[in-house]
Amino acid sequence: MMTPPLDGLPFKTPSVDMIALDDALTELARLDPQRSRVVELRFFGGLSIEETSAVLNLSPMTVKRHWATARLWLHRELSKAGT
Known about the structure:
Blueprint: H1 18-31, H2 33-44, H3 49-56, H4 60-81
Helix pairs in contact: 1-2, 1-4, 2-4, 3-4
């Protein structure tokens, strides 16, 4: 399995501010646990849209929407953190 990129995130180098990323993911989990879980499964677990859909018992379209909005939210948060 290949880990999907977090397209659009402001990672200028391979070294990401892991503390800022962890803080952003923690805040996303607090605000929207389902979108946070989609990020965990897609990015860290390397699951496809279809696999994530099956694990979370959501439609693939819902997973795509959650994945897109979570990436946008993380992009904004990491941009604020200066990552």
